[in-house]
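From the thread on structure requests for the teaching lab: each student submitted one protein with a one-line request. Submission from student K.M.:

"Model Hotdog fold thioesterase from Microbacterium aquilitoris, tokens only."
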Amino acid sequence: MPESASFPSDALEWVTSRGMGALAEKMGMEFTEFSPERAVARMPVAGNTQPVGLLHGGAYVVLGESLGSMHANLHAGPGRLAVGIDINATHTRSATEGWVTGVCTPLHLGRSLTVHEIVVSDDQGRRCSTVRITNMVRDLPAS
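Reply posted by the TA:
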């Protein structure tokens, strides 16, 4: 990604100052790493569970979409916006306590489309869910 005078060189600082949005904040998500190569965030299981005590499947998807969309917007750069157009998730394990961590890596970073894979693991490093998101990158409308 080309550096720009209007774009901070520290991507973690950029994403932290931008914020994750109200839903991600309610769910307790925290970015721990953010760079052009990958993005990492964690989320507590507590407060994000189904009635039977398992982390809600939708919570995995929200974590994945938050990571993938924010990383796509980093790639898009100033004056452009990335918006999700497709997302899917495969849940392979259920977290019941502690935290889950999502590691987002780009599979494709194009001018108009990005594709990211997010692997969500529990505190023991066991994969719980694999999320894939496709974002469309557009120029911001003139204001």
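TA comment: Strands lie at 30-34, 39-44, 80-91, 99-109, 113-121, 127-139. Confidence is low (pLDDT under 50) at residues 1-7.
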